[in-house]
């Protein structure tokens, strides 16, 4: 059986997902791609062998040949499209973040609760990255004692022109929020944002240090530097009682020349997390067949936006902000 996939959004991530579904995922085929720019949808459809490229997101969701929907449209549209899919009874892989704010994200939780089952997998792809998954299983082995702190580095070469300091937290730091909850099996309970000296090459507060406390008393510190110029660089180092755990270089090829040893860095997250995206998308298709949900849930998406709401407040006030959540419904236990 092959599942017909419809994609909403044919931008950077929509096009990347289309290529992954078409070329690297078993048990699925592309049916339709929708984008507000119909020419872009048609171009991606033609490149990836999808039957049609359109500007009709609801038409794609309701197309009987579409058995599952991948949402990669602008962040502010994720929640409404996810709710339309839940109402249509279609499984969804929704790019992060679930919504720009927790209040909007909660509407998707409520839609799943009304439907009585989970439909949406959130695209926090790092949960499928071999580096982070091994880090989590090494921690869980108990061989290094308890985790005490987690140092995270999140650097982009350049940030898009529409980004501001809040977007750095809502759109970029949200990855660290989800992955630290995943690795530490803990909830984030407070957040503080410290601004560094601003780079002359940045148009918002960049770099920043975002410091979280967890409900287990651990610290998670995130260096966010979205105009680092030199490339895309994500690092994580877990500090445990008897050792540290971090992942190695992501390029296997090392060049030694002219007195220098070099490994290359990806220009952005797509090559850096190529394995994670492929494994994630395959896990999504498999979960539709088995009925066993995979990856982050809508609840995880709501929690992440609750944390980033608090992060934006901490950014504006300079204070440490406590984070409070709704009660977790049984559907997500
Ligand atoms: C972007 O939207 C992503 O999701 C990338 O993974 C992240 O590293 C980048 O900072 C975001 O802007």
Plain-language structure description:
This protein folds into two domains: 3-124 and 275-296, NAD(P)-binding Rossmann-like Domain (Rossmann fold), CATH 3.40.50; 127-272 and 305-322, 2-Layer Sandwich (Dihydrodipicolinate Reductase, domain 2), CATH 3.30.360. It contains ten helices and 15 strands. The two termini are 30 Å apart. With 333 residues, the chain is an alpha/beta fold. It has helices spanning 12-24, 38-48, 57-62, 78-87, 102-115, 130-140, 165-184, 269-272, 274-290, 298-317; strands at 3-8, 28-34, 52-54, 68-71, 92-95, 120-123, 147-155, 188-195, 208-214, 219-225, 233-240, 244-246, 254-257, 260-263, 321-322. The strands form three sheets. A seven-stranded mixed sheet has the order 12-11-7-10-9-8-15, covered by helices on one side. Bound molecules: (2R,3S,4s,5R,6S)-2,3,4,5,6-pentahydroxycyclohexanone. The site of (2R,3S,4s,5R,6S)-2,3,4,5,6-pentahydroxycyclohexanone has 5 residues, from helix 7.
CATH topology of the largest domain: Dihydrodipicolinate Reductase, domain 2
Question: Gyration radius, to the nearest Å?
Answer: 20 Å
Can you list the strand order of the major beta sheet? Answer: 12-11-7-10-9-8-15
The largest sheet, given as strand count, sense and whether it forms a barrel, is: 7 strands, mixed
Bound molecules: (2R,3S,4s,5R,6S)-2,3,4,5,6-pentahydroxycyclohexanone
Rounded mean pLDDT score = 97
Residue share in helix: 25-40%
Approximately what portion of the residues adopt beta-strand conformation? Answer: 15-25%
Question: Shape, please?
Answer: globular
Give the low-pLDDT segments: none
Sheet/helix structural class: alpha/beta
Listing every helix as H and every strand as E from the N terminus to the C terminus, the arrangement reads EHEHEHEHEHEHEHEEEEEEEHHHE
- Counting H and I runs of at least 4 residues, what is the number of helices? 10
Number of strands: 15
CATH fourth-tier homologous superfamily of the largest domain: Dihydrodipicolinate Reductase, domain 2
Count of discrete domains: 2
CATH class categorisation of the largest domain: Alpha Beta
Which architecture of the largest domain would the CATH scheme give at its second level?
Answer: 2-Layer Sandwich
Distance between the termini: 30 Å
